[in-house]
Design a protein that fits this description.
The structure holds two protein chains of two kinds.
Chain A lengths: L6 H5 L19 H27 L16 H7 L5 H33 L4 H9 L6 H12 L4 H8 L12 H25 L3 H9 L4 H29 L3 H5 L8 H9 L5 H24 L3 H5 L3
Helix pairs in contact in A: 2-13, 3-13, 4-5, 4-8, 4-10, 8-10, 9-10, 10-13, 12-13
Chain B lengths: L2 H32 L16 H8 L1 H34 L5 H9 L6 H15 L5 H25 L3 H9 L4 H30 L2 H6 L6 H10 L5 H32 L1
Classes of the chains: A mainly alpha, B mainly alpha.
Chain lengths: 308, 266
């Protein structure tokens, strides 16, 4: 796709021109369907089936393991019972996710801009530095923050050594959980935004500048709308992942706040109430899946990934 | 370029540097903690020692855990790349009726909270009567990693010119020959980076391993257990080793890519 393509043409879906040649077609299934089969089988057995199983379990009698032998809505009734505090962990997770997305958008946008326009040949090295933490187990990194903030840790010890009393007590508070989420999910916001910004043709920006548009106007009228698919993916991805986050609350938050994934885990492990845990997992899954499908319906993946 | 622009560019650079420092700060804190002599971490460090590293490398238990992590990541890499190779062709190369649905379905596991997926898989295994072990962990990792690797390879497939395959057919190649001589060579860069992603993502995965590996511990799982109860400086030591292992794998891959490019240019 030429960089000279005007935005109106960019809106048209860029179908990869790859109709399989006639000789390629098998007797029954198309080549694409056959190529997708192994992945579809994996996802059927490993993704769809477990979710169906959880769905089935959510209708079993509480504190039993009788799938398909009993049908009751008790578990859902428990969840939506106002005296139950489960809604509180939902609210925490939802709030954390919203705040994570908002902060990450502000943190990542300038960096993504830099990666796309300013850093030149340094871009790939800087990207790599941002990718690498993805491969370090998240609990290792979160524990590093504990070592930084803990009493007599890096911050506290340094301040004491300088005679400044001691570090602030931030561990085991909601604020540090939020910071942990922002920290963990940074790459999931940064790279989609970078991808989105890369889709903005420079010529249009130059043209707008020549015509006298200010920087704010260029950003609002050109850069932001054209980069939106990438931004949307980043927002969606970080929001959905943050809704299900649990390690931050456990390691940094010291369980001062119970998030929804933790509630599900408690139901499955300590309290051995699989049906209740399943009902909770179903509610989270439906919410997450609805949001993802809604977001993905708004995106043309071919254009986004196949921009070159 | 006017002055305000230069100044804002300077701030973007500064901001990026600052965020990068924060990204690596906890990893460095872990490394520092692993080299302290005392049982409990205190900063500034009064006495340095490599004894916790030695104890970690000497531990038979940790040897087993590292072996498990390698086993899981190794199997995940091989299986994920094979499945994702065909998945990526279905994702980006061929026009077929179910393609849009396939593209969406494959995104769902990536956009799904892993702790919830891990618990769903645990319940599923138990419903089927399959005891959890590192083998079930391989399966669980695949559910999340195959879609990621599919996307990585698909990006390469988008840049692929299908007429090259058609030309090979016209010249009388069999389908296997086309795959070996045209399709695979053109997609190798994507396949290698997909393999690297598969290995590293499996190596560092915690939530899926926690619920689906059963009694078999992997590095992230062992670290978590020790963080919660029974901390010793072996925790940051193994964490730092695992990080260095991932960095080495990434560096080797980068080096190989560089040499490959040179060989092709020559």
């Amino acid at each position: 796709m030429s960089t000279l393509t005007p935005p109106s043409a960019l809106e048209a879906t860029g179908q990869p021109a790859a109709p399989a040649a006639a000789g390629w077609r098998g007797p029954r299934l198309s080549l694409g369907a056959r190529c997708s089969a192994p992945v579809l089988i994996l996802l059927g057995l490993g993704f769809v089936a477990p979710l169906v199983a959880i769905f089935a379990y959510s209708f079993a009698r509480p504190r039993t393991f009788e799938v398909f032998r009993s049908f009751t809505l008790d578990n859902y009734a428990t969840l939506f019972d106002a005296t139950n505090t489960v809604w509180l962990s939902f609210l925490w997770s939802f709030g954390f996710a919203l705040a994570t997305v908002a902060i990450l958008a502000l943190v990542a946008y300038p960096i993504a801009f830099g990666l796309d326009r300013l850093f030149g040949r340094w871009s790939s090295i800087i990207s790599l530095l941002f990718v690498f933490p993805l491969f370090v187990s998240e609990n290792v990194r979160l524990y590093g923050w504990v070592l930084f903030f803990i009493k007599n840790g890096v911050l506290d010890g340094t301040l004491k050594a300088m005679g400044a009393g001691g570090g602030p007590e931030v561990l085991y508070s909601p604020a540090i959980i939020l910071a942990g989420m922002v920290y963990t999910y940074l790459p999931f916001m940064l790279f989609p935004i970078t991808l989105g910004l890369a889709m903005v043709p420079r010529d249009i920006i130059d043209a707008a500048r020549d015509l006298g548009a200010g920087r704010l106007m260029i950003w609002r009228e050109i850069e932001l709308p054209l980069a939106m698919p990438g931004i949307l993916i980043g927002v969606l991805l970080t929001f959905v992942l943050a809704i299900g986050a649990v390690a931050e609350a456990k390691i940094l938050g010291g369980q001062s706040v119970i998030v929804v994934s933790h509630d599900i885990e408690i139901a499955f492990t300590y309290s051995q109430n699989w049906p209740l845990g399943s009902a909770l997992a179903v509610v989270v899954s439906v919410f997450v899946a609805a949001l993802t499908l809604w977001g993905l319906a708004r995106l043309d993946l071919d254009r986004l990934l196949g921009r070159r | 370029m006017d002055q305000t622009q230069t100044r804002s560019h300077f701030f973007i650079g500064l901001w990026t540097a600052l965020v990068l420092v924060l990204v690596y700060l906890p990893i460095i804190c872990g490394a520092v903690a692993s080299f302290t002599k005392s049982r409990y971490f205190a900063f500034p460090v009064s006495a340095w020692s490599t004894s916790w590293w030695e104890r970690t490398t000497d531990s038979i238990e940790i040897g087993m855990i590292v072996q498990n992590s390698f086993l899981v990541a190794g199997f995940v890499t091989v299986i994920a790349v094979v499945l994702a190779f065909f998945g990526a062709l279905a994702f980006a190369r061929y026009e077929w009726s179910g393609r849009r649905w396939f593209q969406k379905l494959i995104m769902l596991p990536i956009f799904f909270p892993q702790p919830v997926l891990g618990l769903a898989l645990l319940l599923w295994f138990s419903a089927l009567g399959i005891p959890t072990s590192w083998v079930t962990a391989v399966f669980a990792h695949l559910v999340w990693i195959v879609p990621v690797v599919t996307l990585v390879i698909a990006i390469q497939v988008y840049g692929f010119d299908p007429t090259l395959e058609e030309a090979a057919f016209d010249l009388g190649c069999s389908r296997l020959q086309v795959l070996r001589e045209v399709t695979l060579p053109l997609l190798w860069p994507g396949i290698w980076s997909g393999a690297l992603f598969a290995f590293l993502l499996s190596w560092g995965n915690f939530p899926l391993s926690l619920f689906t590996a059963g009694a078999d511990s992997t590095i992230p799982k062992w670290l978590y257990a020790k963080m919660v109860a029974g901390y010793s400086p072996m925790v940051p030591a193994l964490g730092t080793m695992s990080t260095l292992g991932a960095a080495t794998a990434l560096a080797l891959a980068g080096l190989a890519a560089l040499m490959w490019r040179k060989l092709r240019a020559a």
